[in-house]
């Protein structure tokens, strides 16, 4: 039998299915990687915003993680919304014990409409605990600004931020996502081995971008689970995410979700299938 690649996401939930754990699992599935999940926080949210958050007790997060790794060992791990400092410390310990597994750290701080998923005072802890362990960290502009405390206005700033995140915070590599800037959707990748790389995709004129970041980091995780080299993994994930945004879904009353099966629709006429 061929190898079964296994990816584990450790994150919060989105009951409308567009972001968080649900987006990660859909992405893993589309990329033919067996998906597993450890839930850190239950989030009552939809495409318009976050209504309430219920954190899973620390001990139970630990039990979920142990249950997974004792049985189906992941080929790559991703973290998304990790809201409390004690959760970060627990995961720091766990990830330190599994350093051989590629680790994608998506430093989730807020939902698309700006609602916070991580309190401001906890952000320094994320910088100290999880970011240094990352094979790759995937901040958007606001998250990168927070991580290294600098303002980012353009691609030059993104490049400076990317280099600083690796050199000052200790992550192995970074991709700073330019989704919130204008013009083409340019992201900046940096690792000490490869130097700076720009990832470019045409910007899709849509507001339906709920969960783009989760989808992108989950796609990187899935590619790493398959043993694909880092820069190649990021480039493949960028193409997958661009397709998911090209074919994003006009559902819900706010920022609609990306379309995880978008990569299967290339070459077909029309966009925004559904309603
Ligand atoms: N309108 C768009 N057209 C094409 N690509 C986009 C668009 N918006 C975002 N992207 C791409 O999607 C990926 C995710 O970036 P983004 O900055 O949206 O992440 P994010 O803010 O963390 O998302 P979220 O918080 O909703 O999960 C990046 O590769 C970015 O360039
Ligand atoms: C649980 C969760 N993680 C991440 C995001 C960011 O898209 C979100 N909205 N919800």
From TrEMBL:
Gene3D superfamilies: 3.40.1190.20
Biological processes annotated in GO: thiamine biosynthetic process
Keyword annotations from UniProtKB, A to Z: ATP-binding, Kinase, Nucleotide-binding, Thiamine biosynthesis, Transferase
SUPFAM superfamilies: Ribokinase-like
Reaction catalyzed: 4-amino-5-hydroxymethyl-2-methylpyrimidine + ATP = 4-amino-2-methyl-5-(phosphooxymethyl)pyrimidine + ADP + H(+); 4-amino-2-methyl-5-(phosphooxymethyl)pyrimidine + ATP = 4-amino-2-methyl-5-(diphosphooxymethyl)pyrimidine + ADP
Pathway: Cofactor biosynthesis; thiamine diphosphate biosynthesis; 4-amino-2-methyl-5-diphosphomethylpyrimidine from 5-amino-1-(5-phospho-D-ribosyl)imidazole: step 3/3; Cofactor biosynthesis; thiamine diphosphate biosynthesis; 4-amino-2-methyl-5-diphosphomethylpyrimidine from 5-amino-1-(5-phospho-D-ribosyl)imidazole: step 2/3
CDD domains per UniProt: HMPP_kinase
EC number(s) stated in the UniProt entry for this protein: 2.7.1.49, 2.7.4.7
Pfam families per UniProt: Phos_pyr_kin (PF08543)
Example GO molecular function: ATP binding
Domain Pyridoxamine kinase/Phosphomethylpyrimidine kinase: 14-259
GO CC terms of this entry: cytosol
Protein family per UniProt: Belongs to the ThiD family.
Protein name in UniProt: Hydroxymethylpyrimidine/phosphomethylpyrimidine kinase
Species: Shouchella clausii
Encoding gene, per UniProt annotation: thiD
